[in-house]
Amino acid sequence: MGETEKRIETHRIRCLSKLKMFLLAITCAFVSKTLSGSYMNSMLTQIERQFNIPTSLVGFINGSFEIGNLLLIIFVSYFGTKLHRPIMIGIGCVVMGLGCFLKSLPHFLMNQYEYESTVSVSGNLSSNSFLCMENGTQILRPTQDPSECTKEVKSLMWVYVLVGNIVRGMGETPILPLGISYIEDFAKSENSPLYIGLIETGAIIGPLIGLLLASFCANVYVDTGSVNTDDLTITPTDTRWVGAWWFGFLICAGVNVLTAIPFFFLPKTLPKEGLENNADIIKNENEDKQREEDKKEKYGITKDFLPFMKSLSCNPIYMLFILISVIQFNAFVSMISFMPKYIEQQYGKSSSDAIFLIGIYNLPPICIGYIIGGLIMKKFKITVKQAAHIGCWLSLLEYLLYFLSFLVTCENSSVVGINTSYEGIPQDLYMGNNIFANCNVDCNCPSKIWDPVCGNNGLSYLSACLAGCETSIGMGINMVFQNCSCIQTSGNSSAVLGLCDKGPDCFLMLQYFLILSAMSSFIYSLAAIPGYMVLLRCMKSEEKSLGVGLHTFCTRVFAGIPAPIYFGALMDSTCLHWGTLKCGESGACRIYDSTTFRYIYLGLPAALRGSSFVPALIILILLRKCHLPGENASSGTELIETKVKGKKNECKDMYQKPTVLNDDELKTKL
């Protein structure tokens, strides 16, 4: 007998260690997938500038990840539970690595990046030559030569990034539904929230690493090593700067492939965590095997698909939760995707600084919130109804705090000829641009080239030529322009490359914005685990994998794909000046109307999120009357009674096939 108990204990420890190994492996998978995703989101601005495409097209490229995901999500979620889930997750990680590698290919197939400029990099120039566009290593000149126009590489190379993102989306498909369902199936119900909280923590560590990597890459010039960076006339704060976006994708590819290895050595099934009796273990294993064999032999692998879909679609709490998720994802996807651009345009920071600040201020509070949320659920054994109230009211608190962001703003950069007159008076943005004035009408300046300079009067100009500058000293980024006839100052008029800084007040507003963002992130993440428990507990155990997959599918189709596209199109509508390509075509936007940009970036998500509280309140009302299938989940069973204390259960039609009690059981319950 002692030998048998020892064997049982050894078996239990071995199974428990395998569950812990899966927990570690799936956490690493979440780290790698979110690392790739956050890096992609952070590089959208760099991709926009590299290929000279509008923000709406960048949004479509970003949403293509969701296209790849939704192509497989429903079937992977359902069929994945019938197959070897760890191996499917491992294959998905390998495919993600392939997608990341494809996204880096354009850099190796394209020529060197050229940015528009009116200034040669050859050093001290005469008063006439620097006002005219001469041949130089970084000069981009408009041309009418058809042969030169056809050689532009910006047109279709972005398709590689598009296809790579689709492939990455296909690879990520099995990780979430199969990973969560595997934990739910073999972990104790009271441990499940903590385990999911740990996994979600991994989903925060990944973006933190991704943002730090993106910050580094965005600060390194895209063609570093093949060009002399000392000759550059732009800095990372310039809207023409393109960082080494391709380098991070190669790193993401390697990380994803390495993450896949452990899953190929994990078992298909495990005994339920906590089953310490040998008879229970054997019975559990035999029942699982027999159930699978019966399904395969009698009905085939698709037997339960349509009934499960019908059951989920008739579950009002589940459907309302999907509605809430779709509305909120429309808001969050848009905010997260374009947050670096918002900080760049609103507060005058470089892409590298914006990405770094997002990682430092936002991700640690989210990580702490996930852990605390999981611990609270475990320690206090929060019920599903209590979890729904926690998630709803915390989200409402975070939503009210969000409105303070409208108060921490900066004014538009004063650019003469766009939003400011040559006398320094702000002008109506939509009355037409007065690019030329008496001070530069004879300079023969290009009117569309974006090569801004900052005058010593605190105003920015489209170019040194339009500022009326006649001479220059210095080289590269240190070049200084002098004798500028359009810069009205009491002393010597001069200008330096780049837009003027927004000032110390704007820096202070940025700090307030980041603090508010950190507080909102913490409160939101604190409510995330209780909210996710409502989703998992409102379904039967056999429906969870498909239910999570269907939930993910709906958020991809109705939020992940369209949100970046229409949000990007709205941002394009606020553009004040577009870049110019060699053939005179419009490139990427160089400067936006900060006020309108702010109203779109903050206002549209506020309206969307506000509307999501209506279905949330309906869920709270339903939960007061309904008994959820997963509430009695400690034993892995669902209990839906037809009568309780002589009253009909008002929710009996919410779920498919309620358990029918026999006469003796019914009398006992009554």
The helix content, as a percent range, equals 55-70%
> What are the segments in which pLDDT stays under 50 over at least 5 consecutive residues?
122-130, 132-144, 295-301, 632-670
Structural class: mainly alpha
Mean pLDDT reading: 79
- Within CATH, the superfamily of the largest domain carries the name MFS general substrate transporter like domains
Question: Which sheet architecture does the biggest sheet show?
Answer: 6 strands, mixed
Write down the overall geometry.
Answer: elongated
Strand order within the widest beta sheet: 1-3-2-6-5-4
Top-tier CATH class of the largest domain: Mainly Alpha
Using the coordinates shown, work out and report the CATH topology of the largest domain.
Answer: Growth Hormone, Chain: A
CATH architecture of the largest domain: Up-down Bundle
Question: What is the rounded Rg?
Answer: 29 Å
Report the total helices. Answer: 21
Total strand segments: 10
Tally of structural domains: 3
Separation of the first and last Cα atoms = 43 Å
Name the beta content range. 5-15%
Could you please describe the fold and organization of this structure?
With about 675 residues, this protein is mainly α. Helix content is about 55%, strand content about 5%. It is elongated, with a radius of gyration of 29 Å. The two termini are about 45 Å apart.
Descriptors:
single chain, 670 residues, mainly alpha, Growth Hormone, Chain: A, 3 domains, six-stranded mixed β-sheet, two-stranded antiparallel ribbon, 21 helices, 10 strands
How does the SSE layout of this entry go?
Blueprint: H1 2-42, H2 44-51, H3 55-70, H4 73-79, H5 85-109, H6 146-150, H7 158-172, H8 175-186, H9 192-218, H10 245-260, H11 278-299, H12 305-313, H13 316-347, H14 351-379, H15 384-402, E1 415-416, E2 453-455, E3 460-461, E4 471-473, E5 480-482, E6 494-497, H16 504-537, H17 544-560, H18 562-572, E7 575-580, E8 586-592, H19 594-611, H20 613-625, E9 643-644, E10 647-648, H21 663-669
Parallel strand pairs: 1-3
Antiparallel strand pairs: 2-3, 2-6, 4-5, 5-6, 7-8, 9-10
